[in-house]
Amino acid sequence: MGAVDNPPNPFVRRRCQYEAAPRAAMVVREERAASVLTTNRSPDIPYRWSVNPYRGCQHGCAYCYARRTHEYLDLGAGSDFENCLTVKTNAPELLDAALASRRWSYDWVAFSGVTDCYQPLEERYGVTRECLKVCVKHANPVSVVTKSPLVLRDVDLLAELHRRRGASVLLSITFADDDLARRIEPGAPPPTARFDALRRLSEAGVPVGVLLAPIIPGLNDRSIPEVLRRAAECGATCATYAPVRLPGSVAPVFLSHLRREMGQAAPRVEARIRDMRDGLLNNPQFGRRMVGSGPYWESVERLFEVVATRVGLSADQQWREPFACAVCTSGKQLLLF
Description:
The chain is an alpha/beta fold. The chain contains 11 helices and 10 strands.
């Protein structure tokens, strides 16, 4: 977003209406956090512990469910989310203290769950790398989800940790086409760079998979066969997926972006999303947030499962904790995105 553009924050009473919205400027704030390990108890989330070194995300994906978290900081879910960023500078020392505790049981730790731990800010601050060093020190298993080839910088740590206790990386690849991806994920690296990162991680001995999430009916479901095929060729052994969900203020951000970038195709995409959500854009109920329904979505599920099986992508035990794979005996295990 070039200009400041945020939907109303439901937690803030005041409203600011610009006659002409100013250009959005990036602001980075350094924070001494009180804690860094987040515990998750939702049945929709396939991991218990996560680490988020940053607040906000420069990738600016229009569909990102995490945009709402910025509203708890008295910021907006729109342009603020990708421009008003926070770095938890003391995350490594907090993680070190947590993993050194006698009460810690060497559970898997997910990086990140809310924002991308390898967004461009990481290249300057290196907080994620220092956190991984802590995990190596304590031989604590980790799983990483990212859109960025910057993860290759830390292949030495990930490979060592995998040998000692366990490590895995899921590359989030939502589109097969670089141009289409740029229109919906304007700040994220192109899919071609992510496929290359997947291949190089695999060659280094790090278990890798592909995360095709969110699947947006009518927009990127047609990319499923190519994404899965290319991922398998690059060494992925696991594939997983989830339908798009647009909670609260994420909906107006996404729909506005969709209309601007996709023009006449936008109403069809919105209709497909509503079709799999019983006329809604999101279902907030635990157990239903990450699940679609209806004939169209069922056809998407079948397509994913058939293609994944054909190209040799399946669930392996190493992916079941903390991440559940889409292709397994039930055929409908979904991963949070």
